[in-house]
Amino acid sequence: MQTIACSRQLARDRYLGALLFNLVAFVLPALYGTLSKLWVARLDSSAVATTDVYTYIGVIVEVINEGLPRAVWIIIGNKASRTLSSRLQLTYTLILFQSLMGFIMSIVIVSAADRFASVFVPLESRRISITYVRISAFSALSSALEVSVSNATRALDKPDVPVVISSVKFIINIILDFILISSFHIGAVRPTVNLQGTIRLACDMGSALAGLAYLIYIARSRLKEHGHFWVNVTYNAGTLGVLARPGAIFFLESAVRNTLYLWLVAGIVSMGSDYATAWGVFNTIRWGLIMVPVQALEATSLTFVGHKWGELRHRITRTCGNRRPKGDLLNIVKPALISAGIALLVEVPLCIFLAFFGCQRFALYLSGSQVVSEITAEMWRSIDWYLSF
């Protein structure tokens, strides 16, 4: 009986099981981001700042990735009031719309590659960075597709889909980078930062499409179990409106926040190559180490808060009541409180360790520059306590 109970707790529709899946899904891309930074530094330390273009494009596309995809937790995650077919149609509408927005954003960035490089790449690396910007521009499309698939499937209690995406991306990236751009690369191939960007884009797009294919396979299997054979996947303005209403506030908040962030980055880049590289290394440490548990805990808590919110709304609708007892509200926020407690237990010791012992050494290992590592350590002591908490 204990074995059965333990197995049940590790199921994808339980908090612990979903958290474990989400940890794997977030740790693999973070690990690859750290390794790729290391390999580029070994090839040409001056090109490290160029690879941060990929990150800054990600910040821009985050504006659309935090709009409608943030609404999935209370819309698609509402399994108490919505049928499976309805939730899947919302999922497909989200994916189609986000992919279109990502494609448009990619075209805009390609068209403005010169201007983008002049703002986000230090002068010393700017000439060789324009091609990298054009290559990385289409990461906006792959990111929009990946985030929409990942968020929707988590809301559908299928956190294994993001794991598939991350695993495919990580394995193929590592193999190709090892063969083509690492210190052990094939002799006939000349490793360059543009080659690294091409490999990364191809793997991002391939893994996102693999996740989409896996989602379609799971959806068809689930629908057959419920006596259906397919769901209308065409664009539906009414369905889009259901997502847009709660998603609008997330979109506006993200647009303001990320605009301010990019303004900050542009100022740092204007200070020179060392500061631009240090900021990139700082973010690699932060997102590749510190934020992995936080992202996993956030995704898990959002999933279950969405489920519980849907259950409360369904119960109130059925009873024609408008009372919200404190016990119900506490039950809704319980997953978020658990996640916050775990995050503090993990993050506080880790931040203290890096602030006093590990940050400069890790930055030196990633950048290969003593000056950059010292700037990164100072950034950590000055900034990351605020950013982490």
Automatic annotation (TrEMBL):
Gene Ontology cellular-component terms listed: plasma membrane
Query: How is this protein positioned relative to the membrane?
Result: Multi-pass membrane protein
Write down the InterPro entries for this protein, in alphabetical order. Answer: MATE_fam (IPR002528), Membrane_Transporter-Flippase (IPR052031)
Whether Cell membrane counts among this entry's keywords is yes
Is-annotated flag, keyword Ubl conjugation? no
Molecular function (Gene Ontology), one example: antiporter activity
Give UniProt keywords alphabetically.
Cell membrane, Membrane, Transmembrane, Transmembrane helix, Transport
Give a Pfam family name: MatE
Coiled-coil features, chain-numbered ranges = none
Question: What is the protein name stated in its UniProt record?
Answer: Uncharacterized protein
Family classification: Belongs to the multi antimicrobial extrusion (MATE) (TC 2.A.66.1) family.
**Cellular localisation:** Cell membrane
Residues passing through the membrane, by range? 15-33, 53-76, 88-110, 161-186, 198-217, 229-248, 260-282, 332-357
What's the superkingdom here? Eukaryota
**PANTHER family, per database record:** MULTIDRUG RESISTANCE PROTEIN NORM-RELATED, MULTIDRUG RESISTANCE PROTEIN YPNP-RELATED
